[in-house]
Task: structure prediction
Amino acid sequence: MREYRIQEGKGMKPSLPPRTYRPSAAEILKFCRRGQGGRQYAELESALDRLQATRYKITNRTHNNTRRAAESFPLIGRFKIVSRTSNDKIDQVEIEIPDWVYAGVVTPLEAPSILTLNADYFLIQKPLAKFIYRLARKATGARGIAEYGLETLHHRSGSPMPFRKFRESLAELVVQAKDNPLPDFDIEIVPAKDGEKLRMIDRKKLLAMKTAA
Result:
């Protein structure tokens, strides 16, 4: 889509990207920061099986909470192993992009509604850190900064931990992030009138804003 917009801006008439793409297994493993031994190739095929079989459901309730609409989506569409190496490792795969992803990237030509992730996201080990990164990636937006109350974060994370334990884990994450920052974002716990908040700051956007000022 980036290439489409570039060509369209030059007055050309490009074609929209196809619904399927064919990455090599090596490209996928490299992007996901995985090694390229035999075990990783076997795990890749198993991962594709799981993704193809996994669905998630969104439920929307009406304002008076009397009716609801639910819709189920697959994480990926059809996939197939296109070719294998002489050692029977996956060489190239074909993956079909599901409708909701394709529409989110292609339909709003001016601003995709599906966000990209920094490839270093796959190096994050802790589930809580992954949740905070995804939330920051979505929430900071054009301002480059967002804040959430800790109780709100606890609820949105779906964590089974009691709030006290959740707060302790979050505080540990903030301390660790000083030496090993999250990709793209700085985080800190700040006081607020109604309790503490987590502040998430997009480093690049903040620097750009300071430079422009």
User: Anything to note?
Assistant: The chain has two domains: 20-96, 119-212.
